[in-house]
Design a protein that fits this description.
alpha+beta; 434 Repressor (Amino-terminal Domain); about 30% helix; disordered N terminus
């Protein structure tokens, strides 16, 4: 017999821990910038980092920041620019992820019905005779209505048809010219997804091809990259306006606005 139950494991919320850590880091970063009398726009142009990202770092706004891995890199980069120890400050920001919790649905029906009838024997005999009477009556009705009538199927009458004399009239059949419809030739569907990225401004990105991460880092201005996939390519960018994307030789398009954090998905069209 077990007299002691194991205590439930405590679930740690790393998102909440990161929020608390970032609040302490943001105070240190903001104070260092104010002490050096630096303007955010100047810092943004020199670091190639959007102003809204700098504001998010100084206000500890995790919602406006990318994934923890990239956020840690931004903290280190910003701290080094402010002549602080970027390595030491960024190490105060944890990268642990919250564990996935699965809930099992359990059904424990607890219905119990108890019937307690106390009927005297004389009433039981009375109900028994009534039931027997109606059973015999219903049985007789069923036997009376179970007569089957034979249905005669009439024979098919053969209709005599008179054969009309053939008249010698020449029958001319007009020539039928078949009309051949031209089928519209559909352009061949691509069998591979080709995504080309041209970098106009520095931006951190994460590339996922067919469900597998293939690149994480910061792309600098002037670079051109290409990723090929069989089904899907996902681009997560911290500066969407700095990236121009071309999919399967289509018209190049900017991924978004400057400084915008974007998650774009490109899929190969289904074959018809």
């Amino acid at each position: 017999m077990k007299f002691f139950k194991k205590s439930k494991e405590e679930i740690i919320d790393y998102d909440e821990i990161r929020q608390q850590q970032l609040e302490l880091i943001s105070v240190e970063l903001k104070q260092a910038r104010i002490d050096k009398n630096l303007d955010k726009n100047v810092i943004s142009s020199q670091l190639h980092t959007p102003v809204n990202i700098i504001n998010a770092l100084e206000s500890a706004d995790l919602q406006q920041l990318p994934e923890p891995f990239f956020t840690k890199q931004l903290i280190k980069k910003y701290a080094n620019f402010l002549k602080l120890d970027g390595e030491d400050i960024s190490n105060k920001f944890t990268l642990e992820l919250n564990p996935k919790i699965y809930y099992k649905k359990s059904f424990s029906p607890s219905f119990s019905f108890k019937f307690n009838f106390n009927i005297k024997p004389q009433y039981l005999y009375f109900f028994y005779f009534i039931l027997l009477f109606f059973s015999i009556r219903n049985l007789s009705n069923i036997l009376e209505s179970s007569q089957f009538s034979q249905i005669k199927i009439p024979q098919k009458q053969v209709m005599e048809t008179q054969i009309l004399p053939k008249k010698n009239h020449p029958i001319t059949n007009p020539e039928v010219i078949p009309i051949v419809e031209k089928k519209e030739e559909k352009p061949p569907q691509p069998t591979e997804l080709i995504v080309k990225v041209t970098v106009k401004e520095d931006s951190w990105v994460k590339i996922i091809v067919d469900g597998k991460p293939v690149f994480e880092g910061i792309l600098t201005k002037g670079l051109e990259k290409q990723w090929n996939g069989k089904q899907k390519v996902i681009i997560r960018a911290g500066n969407a306006g700095g990236l121009v994307v071309t999919v399967n030789d289509e018209k190049p398009k900017e991924l978004g606005k400057s400084g915008q954090v974007t998650n774009a998905t490109f899929e190969l069209p289904m074959r018809s």
